[in-house]
Every structure is written in C-alpha cells, then in structure tokens.
Write a structure and sequence with these properties.
The structure is a single chain. By secondary structure, the chain is mostly helical. The chain has one domain. It contains 2 helices and 2 strands; from the N terminus they run E-E-H-H. It has a two-stranded antiparallel sheet. Strand 1 and strand 2 form a beta hairpin. The longest helix is centred in the C-terminal third of the chain and has 24 residues. The N and C termini lie close together (8 Å). This is DUF1656 domain-containing protein. Keywords: Cell membrane, Membrane, Transmembrane, Transmembrane helix.
C-alpha cells in the first residue's frame, strides 16, 4: 500500500481516506441499528458505536490491502 493518495495535487494519507470510507459505512450501520431498535439492548451506545467503527475500519483496511496486492 502506498503512503499517500494524490487528490488534485494534494497528498492525503491513505489511512485518512480509509477512515472516511469506514465512517460512511458506519453511518449506514448506525442508521440501520437505530431504525430496527437494536440500541434498546445495548448498555452504552457510544462505546458500542466505537467498537463497530473499529471493526469496520479493520475490515476496510484488509479489503483494500487485498484489492491492491
């Protein structure tokens, strides 16, 4: 994986782009969980959302690494 991505002449760290993708996916997951009422069974919503974000970010990193190589 390369260290930076060139976006219109501005070098952006690739981790930042992957974090943005993971955030957008996490936003969809949070909306779906909120719509279904899943959060009624969760003790601490903020910690749960952070854990889901970390898992999604790890998944995005692994998938992007497999697609590049």
């Amino acid at each position: 994986m390369i260290g930076e991505i060139d976006i219109f002449g501005v070098f952006v760290p690739s981790v930042l782009v992957l974090m943005l993708i993971a955030y957008l996916i996490n936003l969809g997951i949070r909306t779906a969980l909120d719509y279904t009422g899943f959060y009624r069974f969760v003790w601490h919503r903020s910690i749960f959302d952070l854990g889901v974000y970390v898992l999604v970010l790890g998944l995005v990193v692994v998938v992007s690494h497999r697609l590049i190589t």
